[in-house]
Amino acid sequence: MAYIYRILNKITKKCYIGETKCLDVTRRWNQHKKTIENNKGCCCPALRDAVIKYGIENFVFTVLVICFVDDRFKYEIEYINKYNSIFPNGYNITNGGEGGGGFQGKKHTEEVKNKIKTTLKKKYIDNPELKKQLSERNKIVLNIPEVKERMKLGMLNSNKHQKATRTPKTDDVKRKISEGLKKYNNENKPIKIQQYDINNNLLNEYTSISEASKKTSITRRVISLYLREKTKSTKGFIWKYV
């Protein structure tokens, strides 16, 4: 598992969005504090300068998303955009998604930045179906008692500016997270749908709403609304579950 986190300045309300795959997420917060205190190796000089100016006691560390390791970069980019945390509005100095050292040795062109924003907006931000799925998956993990306790302990230690107690994930916690996500995935497998013309003649069958949207250029939202009987207009087509 991986985490997307936020470091918020309580005074200015500016923030830094980061990602980590540390087993103990609070360890990442401690790493930030240590590198800032030692004034070396900090991947974000804007955050470092702000902590030096306002004091570590005026910064709060919170977890925004728990996700799979392979998904962490896309969420980092999405939340940097959501919180508008690019310097000078915040403390991020890139759009995210680089991994392994942040901004050091890397620089995006304006063209690349625009492509990243456009791709994310199309695939994630403007996709209510996917946003709902991701939200539900996140709730499953956060509702596991052991995960709740780890989060609570980590946040309490961080807010008190103490060294967070390291509590590596046990095999039991990992198993429960895996079982919870597998159950969700099994209960939410893609459902086949069929496309008909206005005379109720079958035109096509698709493995999912996403496939139908991709091949017909009709948005997922419109197809979903029709299937839930919340709209009567789908560009002259009728949709049914198989």
TrEMBL record:
It holds the Pfam family NUMOD1. InterPro entries: GIY-YIG_endonuc, GIY-YIG_endonuc_sf, Intron_endoG1, Intron_nuc_1_rpt, NUMOD1, WH-like_DNA-bd_sf. PROSITE patterns: GIY_YIG. One of its GO terms (molecular function) is endonuclease activity. Residues 1-93 form the GIY-YIG domain. NCBIfam families: grpIintron_endo (TIGR01453). This is GIY-YIG domain-containing protein. The lineage of its organism: unclassified sequences, metagenomes, organismal metagenomes.
